[in-house]
Design goal:
By secondary structure, the protein is mostly beta strands. Helix content is 12%, strand content 34%. A hairpin with a 5-residue loop joins strand 6 and strand 7. The termini are far apart. This is DNA-binding protein.
Length: 153
């Protein structure tokens, strides 16, 4: 007599951000083009992170997004061991990264598993397309990208 194995539950889709938000939509539009972008004030050049339409440095309303280099450094990280959503199986790593060209701007990234990270480690951007079409900027160790390039040759 054979026993049927219980069906594995299908993993739900990853959570997606609201890409039509007037303050952050430009970030996701740039990601869809394969770019990392930050909001800047056209009047004084200040980086507006967290992004807002109004510049709190000079009081200007003329703001927009511009591309920045797709490089960052690890600022801090933690490994999540307790599952809080079925789309994110544990363990996974959540890291705070500071952009190489704009160290005052820090972004959060998700890495599956227990990523081998260290403070100041160089990272490069990669672009992840979710099931609904939203493109996220994710970060991975720069040496992992070099290894992938070596494997391709």
């Amino acid at each position: 007599m054979t026993t049927a194995r219980p069906a594995q539950p299908e993993q739900p889709p990853r959570l997606a951000p609201a890409v039509s938000d007037p303050d952050t939509g430009g970030f996701f539009a740039a990601a869809a083009r394969g770019e990392v972008a930050l909001r800047y004030c056209a009047g004084c050049g200040a980086v507006l992170h967290l992004p807002r339409a109004y510049c709190w440095h000079c009081g200007g309303w003329d703001t927009g997004y511009r591309a920045v280099p797709p490089r960052a450094r690890v600022y801090s990280w933690t490994v999540v061991e307790h599952q809080v959503h079925p789309a994110y199986p544990v363990p996974y790593t959540v890291a705070l990264v500071e952009l190489a060209g704009e160290p005052a701007a820090r972004l959060v990234t998700y890495l599956p598993g227990r990523a081998a990270l260290h403070p100041g480690q160089e990272l490069s951007a990669r672009f992840e397309r979710l099931e609904n079409g939203t493109v996220l900027v994710q970060w991975r160790p720069a040496d992992a990208e070099e290894e992938a390039d070596d494997d391709a040759t």
